[in-house]
Design a protein that fits this description.
- The complex is a heterodimer.
- By secondary structure, chain A is mainly alpha-helical.
- Helix content of chain A is 52%, strand content 7%.
- Chain A has one domain.
- Chain A has six helices and two strands.
- A five-stranded antiparallel beta sheet of chain B has the order 7-8-10-9-11, with helices on one face.
- Chain B folds into two domains: 86 residues, no CATH class; 152 residues, no CATH class.
- Classes of the chains: A mainly alpha, B alpha+beta.
- Chains A and B meet through helix 3 of A and strand 8, strand 10 and helix 8 of B.
């Protein structure tokens, strides 16, 4: 399988807005209705998504965990599938970003809430490559 | 809005951005060669010379008739970015004829029920009869001559045919995705029988007691529980409609 260069740290959807604002990255606001939680896209290769899923499953089965954190991690597993489903139904928007950035065909936006992200980053078994893509998003 | 009547792949990006004018003389020459071959016993495709005016292309099938001046057709092709070659104009002309309106009889004998946008705002969906014509699936609008009983029969038959449309089911975690191998618009045909969809989803190992469907006409259909469907559809800028499967039967006909 060809190895794709990992997307730049903090790269996110809505790149046009990022370019205008001059920021290194931005948080894409959800298109959902009022009250929906703000989910932020993290562009991950297929390999990184597989690593993330494996780490989450291991964390869920391997140790005692706060039930709320466990729910967040379950939601992360769900999101990994939903991200793929989203791309199957509406491939154009992610394809535009891939075209603009030169990212590989397997790079998809995985959209996480702050709580979900925090639960992921709290996992000691998170591979460093994935952690590097998810962590320190503010960079400011 | 993009004009799809002339086929989407006839021109490259530069041709669409900076279209070269399609000349009437060139179009006439191509039409003379191409149109006769497109005619069938039910389909009349002619170029008619009007006295004191330009030529008109006439397409007639059953009760439907389309007439367009050659100048206007050439302008439309220019705007659509049709490649100004014999091959490009020929393909665009054939595509334009293929996009002609669907007659009542064709809808009655071959119509298939699908979901489509109710209007250009793309905020609500309804049932529509489409007819396959080669690589296209074209919408049917009842003619003014069609009586309500005839329209009802055509829609009922289209509903029945939708049951026979073979769709691919892909399970992506808690999401079931339905798509059609050739014609994306047919992906929603399965929604005429959501209980059968549920049975297939269950057989594939997925439990979905509160199945909601996420519909973007002309795209694969996604089925998931309510919260997951909301997460799926809420995080995209693409237009879609999410509804519980029980509401499908109550959607209006377009």
């Amino acid at each position: 399988m060809p190895e794709h260069p990992p997307p730049p740290r903090g790269a996110a959807g809505g790149y046009g807005i990022a370019a205008r604002s001059g920021r290194a990255r931005l948080s894409a606001l959800p298109a959902g209705g009022a009250g929906s939680e703000n989910l932020v896209p993290y562009w991950l290769t297929s390999g990184h998504r597989t690593e993330l899923a494996l780490a989450v499953r291991t964390a869920l089965t391997g140790r005692v965990m706060h039930p709320v954190a466990a729910i967040h991690l379950q939601d992360v597993l769900t999101e990994l599938h939903v991200a793929a489903a989203r791309d199957a139904v509406w491939p154009a928007s992610a394809a535009r970003v891939r075209l603009a950035t030169g990212w590989g065909e397997d790079v998809l936006p995985v959209r996480l809430s702050a709580a979900e992200l925090a639960s992921v980053l709290a996992m000691p078994g998170l591979p460093s490559g994935v952690r590097g893509l998810l962590d320190d998003r503010d960079g400011e | 809005m993009t004009d799809t009547r002339f086929g989407g792949s006839s021109a490259g990006l530069m041709q669409r951005l900076r279209p070269t004018r399609i000349g009437v003389a060139d179009l006439r020459e191509v039409a003379d060669a191409v149109l006769p071959a497109l005619a069938t016993p039910r389909l009349r495709v002619d170029m008619v010379q009007r006295t004191g005016a330009g030529s008109v292309v006439v397409v007639e099938e059953d009760e439907r008739q389309v007439r367009i001046g050659l100048h206007e057709l050439a302008d439309d092709m220019t705007r659509a970015g049709v490649a100004p070659t014999t091959e490009g104009i020929s393909a665009a002309l054939a595509s334009w004829v293929a996009h002609r309106p669907v007659p009542d009889a064709a809808a009655a004998t071959a119509g298939i029920a699908v979901l489509d946008w109710v209007d250009n705002t793309r905020t609500s969906v309804g049932w529509r009869v489409v007819v396959r014509r080669g690589e296209l699936a074209l919408p049917w609008l009842p003619s003014s001559a069609a009586d309500p009983a005839e329209v009802h029969r055509t829609r009922s038959a289209a509903n029945g045919r939708a049951h026979d449309v073979a769709l691919d089911l892909r399970v992506e975690g808690p999401v079931a995705l339905w798509s059609h191998a050739d014609l994306s618009v047919l992906a929603t045909a399965a929604l005429v029988d959501p209980e059968r969809m549920l049975r297939r989803i269950t057989a594939a190992g997925l439990s979905m007691p509160d199945m909601h469907v996420v519909v973007t006409p002309h795209r694969p259909v996604a089925c998931a529980g309510q919260a997951i469907a909301a997460r799926l559809a809420g995080e995209t800028t693409e237009a879609s409609v999410t509804l519980p499967w029980q509401d499908l039967a109550d959607l209006p006909w377009i």
